[in-house]
Amino acid sequence: MRIDAASAARIVSGTLVGGDAGAVADGIWFDTRSLPAGRAFVAIRAERDGHDHLGDAFAAGAPFALVERGRAHPHLPCVEVDDTLAALAALGGHCRDRLSQSCGHRIVGITGSAGKTSTKQLIGAVLSAGFPGAVAASASLNNDIGVPVTLACAPEATPAIVVEMGMRGFGEIARLCAIARPMIGVVTNVGDAHSARVGGRDGVARAKSELAQSLPADGTAILNADDPRVSAMAGVTRGAVVTYGSAPSAGVRFEVESRDVEGRATARFTHGGATATGLVPLVGDHMVANAAAAVAVGIVCGMTLSDAVGALATAEGVAGRGSWTTAGDVRILDDSYNANSASMSAALSVLAGSGTGTLFAVLGEMAEIDEPERAHRVVAGGAAELGITVLAHATTMYGVPAMSLAEIVGVIRAAGPCSVLVKGSRAARTERVVAALMES
Q: Which of 39, 80, 203, 216 can pair with 69 through a Cys bridge, CB separation 3.0 to 4.6 Å?
């Protein structure tokens, strides 16, 4: 979305210094290592202080930057503000206002303990078929930086937009909703991800329900009928409610009909007496539930059931979230991006159903969950019941010895033909296991 430096200064109550007031940016970005030419740069204090990289932003072709007062760069027009994160939120809210004309009610917010990004991909595929040019947030841009950046980087005439909303505590989703003001809110499930921060799963449900609560009276909450904590959110929203799931009561109901060798399902979807069958191209039966949420979004936006289901086949997966790859005689199910109890169970089921040869699960620790000792032992027990050998990556939480990266690669390479699930929370960095197996 195009915005000039002078307008940005006015929107964020900042002061433009050191350059051309008419400098125009096409969106905004926060990391100079991936900054596209033509986007403004916002200097955020995090693991890296963005102010230390203003020279890199200038070299990359940023037209201007948002900076803290007194931190302007001598060769780059800068909008000085008290707080760059607050300024970014204000800019995101302004861009949300501008999207109202082209998007109408097709502004979708999505949250849940697991499956947010995959569901976002599926919703993006459905809406792109019905409304060419629809935008879905890239990667996992789902926090105080990612949500306003997603809005600011959307093209001017975007017909629909999907914003992902993460949660690490109470009030975070409400804050993101105040920026994005979604008209459609999707809640996938309530699990134990980040439950240690909010007092267990009931606390997670309370935090996730902030999306349903934020919807206006003419909005729509799309809720998972198979998750009691999610379906209960119908009682806290002012908007209409559409449910999805395998339950007979679901407004958009699904049933798996078949699976291919990779674990991708073909499913039948029903709504209002109509039926349509289609491929869900992401791996695992749990992805069919996410697909049903996407179909529900399409229907709420005016698409037919048949068109919405047909569009699912165009959805693309995201690296590290349940895709198969091969290294010699080792098949790798790379689900390394993140983990909680529910997503672990789903991934183990995929491995058991679609894996070949000896089955291994290389598991890193699940972080920020309540009752962690019990949760990890339950996962290990589930793996054993499925005939899967757990190799614990740098943790003893699963009740088996902790192993180094080299030890894990050695065991897998010595096993001959095998299939390996790699999964863990971000802090466990299990993506290193995938890289090591691919290189060995």
A: 80
| Pairwise CA distance, residues 113 & 255, whole Å | 22
CATH number of the domain where residue 124 is located? 3.40.1190.10
Could you give the CA distance from residue 195 to residue 204 in angstroms, rounded to a whole number? 6
Are residues 173 and 227 part of one domain? yes
DSSP label at residue 421: E
Q: pLDDT tens digits, the chain, 440 residues: what are they?
A: 999 999 999 999 999 998 777 899 999 999 999 999 999 999 999 889 999 999 999 999 999 999 999 999 999 999 999 999 999 999 999 999 999 999 999 999 999 999 999 999 999 999 999 999 999 998 779 999 999 999 999 999 999 999 999 998 999 999 999 999 999 999 999 998 899 999 999 999 999 999 999 999 999 999 999 999 999 999 999 999 999 999 999 999 999 999 999 999 999 999 999 999 999 999 999 999 999 999 999 999 999 999 999 999 999 998 899 999 999 999 999 999 999 999 999 999 999 999 999 999 999 999 999 999 999 999 999 999 999 999 999 999 999 999 999 999 999 999 999 999 999 999 999 999 999 999 97
**Do 159 and 253 belong to one domain?**
yes
Name every residue whose Cβ is closer than 8 Å to that of residue 207 and which is 6 or more positions away in sequence. 167, 169, 170, 172, 173, 198
Query: Could you tell me the residue range of the domain that residue 77 belongs to?
Result: 2-82
List the beta bridge partners of residue 109: 163, 185
The Cβ of residue 139 has, within 10 Å, a number of other Cβ atoms equal to 11
Judgement on whether residues 97 and 197 belong to the same structural domain of the protein: yes
State which H helix or E strand residue 335 sits in.
strand 330-335
CATH code for the domain of 403: 3.90.190.20
At what angle are helices 172-180 and 84-103 packed, to 10 degrees?
50
State which of 61, 82, 103 marks the end of a domain.
Answer: 82
Q: Which residues, in sequence order, are bridge partners of residue 368?
A: none
Rounded to a whole number of angstroms, the CA Rg of the chain reads 23
Q: How far apart are CA 216 and CA 365, in angstroms?
A: 39
* Residue 138 and residue 188 share a domain: yes
Q: How far is CA 270 from its chain centroid?
A: 26
